[in-house]
Specification:
mainly alpha, 12 helices, globular
């Protein structure tokens, strides 16, 4: 019988299997063809406007080309990865559901932050109302009112007299020329996207600062869909009021966005109390409805966003926006008089 080997060492256990790397978050690469198309078309329009072939100046082409650059850059921001996600809702389900069961829609957007349908609807309603508003009041009345208010600006903001008259002529031509009106639609669509994306980024950063978690595309989807009910109600009612109310009673600047008066601004005359009018106009049914929709969207559209965080972010940004609007009105009160 052999003696035991005192120097014997058992073999080490086999190494644990390597953990599979976490799946890489997908990117919204479907945006890139649209981004490239917008950039190319924008450059073409820009070149034609510089060559004086297309009227309206270089702004519409430059805005469209810039939108292409922004879309291409945003296509590298990863989409959220939500485990065990439910199936995506259809565009019609989301557009209708945000009126009746917004929490369900926002929870679905958390895993599938698709915002194109809401963006198209908001833009379409804005274009329809703007064109109806222009036809009802006439381009001459709108442009003359705006230019007269620019002429009332204090120095050094007042343009020279020759520039004032040029603004008057160019403005009326822009609202009457079909090509310029089409380019105006492009500029409006671009502005809606830029503004919403910027606001979404602010809401996302504020949510992170308050301790929640939110992806950029989740914030974009929440901002677009939380705006849908407000825009639909305002534009539809405004279109009805537009053809009932006398054009002489419609303000060319204050009512350029909508004619719905559901706030305390109806108690004040904007010419006499411009700052108080802006503050009072922010207190109304639709403004609080929009605030509730944003808080609901943040809570259900983000990850680990509590009710307190959602309301804290929504109210904070609402107050900051009101302060900004109040400050601008205090500097330029003549535009709402």
């Amino acid at each position: 019988m052999s003696e035991p080997n005192e120097n014997f060492q058992p073999p080490p256990p086999p190494p644990p299997p390597l953990a599979e790397p976490a799946p890489r978050a997908p990117r919204p690469t479907k945006l890139r063809p649209f981004a490239i198309a917008a950039f190319v078309v924008g450059l073409i329009v820009l070149g034609l406007s510089i060559a004086k072939i297309v009227p309206g100046g270089p702004a519409p082409g430059g805005v469209l080309a810039f939108m292409g650059i922004v879309l291409f850059a945003l296509s590298f921001i990863p989409l959220p990865v939500v485990p065990d996600a439910e199936a995506p809702m259809s565009a019609l389900q989301k557009l209708s559901g945000v009126f009746f069961e917004p929490s369900t829609v926002f929870r679905n957007l958390r895993a599938h932050p698709r915002w194109l349908a809401a963006y198209i609807l908001i833009t379409l309603l804005g274009v329809v109302y703007t064109n109806a508003f222009t036809q009802r009041l006439t381009p001459e009345k709108i442009v003359n009112f705006r230019v007269d208010k620019v002429a009332e600006l204090p120095a050094p903001f007042t343009p020279p007299p020759e520039r004032i008259e040029a603004m008057r002529t160019e403005g009326i031509e822009q609202l009457k020329n079909p090509v310029q009106r089409v380019l105006g639609v492009v500029s409006m669509a671009s502005a809606i996207f830029f503004f919403t994306a910027l606001i979404a980024a602010i809401y996302m950063l504020a949510t992170l600062a308050f301790g929640g978690r939110m992806n950029f595309w989740q914030a974009v989807a929440v901002m677009f869909y939380s705006a849908v009910p407000i825009v639909v109600i305002q534009k539809v009612l405004s279109l009805a009021i537009l053809y009932v109310k006398s054009p002489d009673d419609i303000h060319p600047i204050l009512n350029a966005d909508n004619l719905v008066q559901d706030n305390l601004g109806i108690l004040l005359a904007p010419a006499n109390h411009p700052v108080l009018f802006v503050i009072a106009s922010s207190i109304g049914l639709l403004s609080f409805y929009g605030l509730w929709l944003k808080a609901t969207g943040l809570r259900n559209g983000g990850t680990k966003v509590s009710k307190g965080v959602a309301w804290g972010v929504a109210v904070t940004i609402w107050v900051l926006g009101l302060l900004l609007a109040t400050g601008i009105t205090a500097l330029f009160p003549q535009f709402i008089s």
